[in-house]
Design a protein that fits this description.
Elements: H1 2-19, E1 21-26, E2 30-35, E3 40-44, E4 59-66, E5 70-75, E6 79-84, E7 89-93, E8 108-113, E9 120-125, E10 129-134, E11 139-143, E12 159-164, E13 171-176, E14 180-185, E15 190-194, E16 209-214, E17 221-226, E18 230-235, E19 240-244, E20 259-264, E21 271-276, E22 280-285, E23 289-294, E24 309-318, E25 320-325, E26 329-334, E27 339-343, E28 358-364, H2 372-379, E29 381-384, E30 391-396, E31 404-409, E32 414-418, E33 424-426, E34 433-441, E35 444-452
Antiparallel strand pairs: 1-2, 2-3, 3-4, 5-6, 6-7, 7-8, 9-10, 10-11, 11-12, 13-14, 14-15, 15-16, 17-18, 18-19, 19-20, 21-22, 22-23, 23-24, 25-26, 26-27, 27-28, 29-30, 30-33, 31-32, 31-34, 34-35
């Protein structure tokens, strides 16, 4: 059996190296990614548990998190959201304003389901808030409402669980920035709410909006991306529009003057993919060429320069299928599913094992460690009951042997360790709360979460 498992691991490792990534999301200082097989990986800053690996340890290379058919991920400032193929929504990381949607304001380094709904279809993580749309067309938001970014009418009160935004049922896509939320309806109209001190809502004013307001009259919006105090939108005719703060030229209109309504970027109508960092934009045209503009500090634009530019400048990279930007760095997945990065890397957000920044795109190797060893370990053990009051039972399937069992809290504080008698674990002495059960088997670890009543 062990020989068979070895070859499974070897084969999976080879496949992993050849397949690499399908989706990427850059937070300010951490990165989330999904492989072509639907596995979730993460790396970079992990101070608040935003990587979801059960720790608060920074990771310099891609770290396997979960293999449960992930479809989308969204990295906020210090929290993360993920959407699975079964329509369930998951969150982890910082939770000081309830942005995880679990009913608390306690940070959580473990990937945890948001409620019980299984009909989520679009989601977005802002700095300290989250938003999502269900398949019934309803829009929901939670977390900080400091500037009205939850769209609930002006209470400015944080919400720790998903709260419906208006009673409308025609929402299609949602996007979030630091203090704003934007959404596209099924009729192609664009709506925004939240902070508006420099016109970032896009409604022609600089007055804060606590409820969704329509941005212009266009009915052909297809995608939106937003930075710290600005946003950029793509229309179905391939035209690109931007509004809000323009201090670094991030609106791309050749000026450094802010705009309170969507303003067209040049005359091109062949834009295809867009992504905003805090103060810069990266976009690709239909001919596979990539452009960047705005704040080039630390090489965020990838054009071998750290200056700011107020018109699109071509990046020396082609054939991109996905783009995501962090505070001062940019990540792209090319058509061959390989990852490239540029800009600041001081928090290891590239995932290449270094903290070296770069002014030009560099390739990041696919992870050489496959997730199958963790998968096999996870399949080999079942714990019950959960929640538990007195005794936790570990059912060991015959493939693997247990070497050690450790119980910690979510911060990593150890409460118990056993190296024998693994069948029954007494937990009656633990205070009520959430804990991690770490099982070491044949040199590999698997982590399960349980609740003590």
């Amino acid at each position: 059996m062990k020989i068979i498992l070895f070859f499974l691991i070897l084969i999976a490792s080879l496949n992993s190296n050849g397949q690499c990534w399908s989706k990427i999301s850059a937070g300010d200082y951490h990165t989330l990614a999904i492989t072509v097989d639907g596995e979730l990986w993460a790396w970079g800053d992990n101070y608040n548990g935003e990587l979801g690996d059960g720790t608060t340890i920074n990771r310099t290379t891609p770290t396997f998190i979960n293999n449960s058919s992930w479809q989308e991920v969204s990295a906020g400032l210090s929290h993360s959201l993920g959407l699975k193929g079964d329509g369930t929504l998951w969150s982890w990381g910082r939770n000081g304003t309830g942005q995880l949607g679990d009913g608390t304001d306690i940070d959580n380094p473990i990937v945890t389901q948001v409620g019980m709904a299984d009909n989520w279809m679009s989601m977005a993580a802002g700095a300290n808030h989250s938003a999502a749309i269900k398949s019934d067309g309803t829009l929901w938001a939670w977390g900080s409402d400091e500037y009205g970014q939850l769209g609930d009418g002006g209470t400015n009160t944080a919400k720790t669980i998903p709260t419906q935004v208006s009673s409308e049922t025609t929402w299609k896509k949602v996007f979030a920035s630091e203090y704003n939320t934007y959404a596209i309806k099924q009729d192609g109209t664009l709506w925004g709410f939240g902070r508006n001190n420099v016109g970032q809502v896009g409604d022609g004013t600089t007055v804060q909006k606590n409820m969704p307001v329509q941005i212009g009259t266009a009915t052909n919006w297809s995608e939106i991306s937003s930075g710290r105090y600005f946003a950029v939108g793509l229309q179905t005719d391939g035209s690109l529009w931007a509004w809000g703060d323009n201090f670094y030229g991030q609106l791309g209109d050749g000026t450094y003057i802010g705009k309170t309504i969507p303003t067209k970027i040049g005359a091109s109508t062949d834009w295809k993919i867009i992504a905003c960092g805090a103060e810069h934009i990266v976009a690709q045209k239909t001919d596979a060429t990539v452009y960047a503009w705005g704040n080039g500090q630390d090489g965020a634009l990838g054009i071998n320069n750290d200056a700011k530019f107020n018109t699109p400048k071509q990046v020396n990279i082609l054939n991109v299928q996905s783009i995501s930007c962090g505070s001062l760095h940019s990540l792209v997945i090319k058509n061959d599913n390989k990852l490239w990065a540029w800009g600041t890397n001081v928090n290891n957000q590239f995932g290449n094992g270094t903290n070296t920044s770069t002014l030009i795109p560099v390739e990041v190797a696919c992870p050489t460690t496959t997730a199958i060893s963790f998968q096999e370990a996870a399949k080999s053990f079942k714990i019950f009951p959960n929640p538990v009051k007195d005794f936790l039972t570990i059912r060991n399937l015959p493939e693997m042997s247990i070497e050690k069992v450790v119980i910690t809290d979510l911060s990593g504080q150890k409460f118990s360790e056993q190296t024998s008698n693994f069948t029954l674990i007494e937990v009656s002495q633990l205070p009520a709360g959430m804990y991690l059960l770490q099982i070491t088997s044949e040199g590999r670890k698997t982590v399960s979460k349980f609740i003590k009543h």
